[in-house]
Design brief:
CATH superfamily: Glucose-6-phosphate isomerase like protein, domain 1
Helix content: 55-70%
Structural class: alpha/beta
Radius of gyration: 16 Å
Strand order of the largest sheet: 2-1-3-4-5
Number of domains: 1
CATH topology: Rossmann fold
CATH architecture: 3-Layer(aba) Sandwich
Largest sheet: 5 strands, parallel
Order of helices and strands: HHEHEHHEHEHEH
Number of strands: 5
Length: 179
Amino acid sequence: MTKIINNYFKNFILTLNLISKKKINLLIQEVKKLKKNNNRLFICGNGGSGANAVHLANDLLYSKISKKSIDVEALTANTAVVTCLANDIGYKYIFSKQLETKAKKNDLLLIFSGSGNSQNIIEAATVAKKLKMNIFAVVGFDGGICKKTIKNCIHVNINDMQISEDFQMIIGHLIMKSL
């Protein structure tokens, strides 16, 4: 067990030193601007990344630290909407169709993804670009399609899903504390 713990901590610390603090700061500044201009933040992801989206939306909406809530929505949170869209038009569109209905220019889409390759997040980014939203992604592994196509991509360069997801929450908590 000690070996597993030591390796996890070692890989976490090595990864921490590789992440672009400049891009994290840029994301924080964008969220502050979003709050000031009364725009909305939309967060999406799949699996653990989707759970992190819900967690961060909760933190930003109800945090006593921020004193004023942000208009934020985790696109993964409404299971009725997600399952309806997946069933009726396809899983690829579970986030993009919500954005088409709810989002507007200068809103912010924050993507959490381990691989950066899921079709539904790529489709969400495509719609967000059409709507002239700001887009950030936090991705692990090699960054996938998100790293290649999203200008503001925070790459957690590690082939470990759990550490990748840890950094999604750390970045989210940094946003919360900055407010």
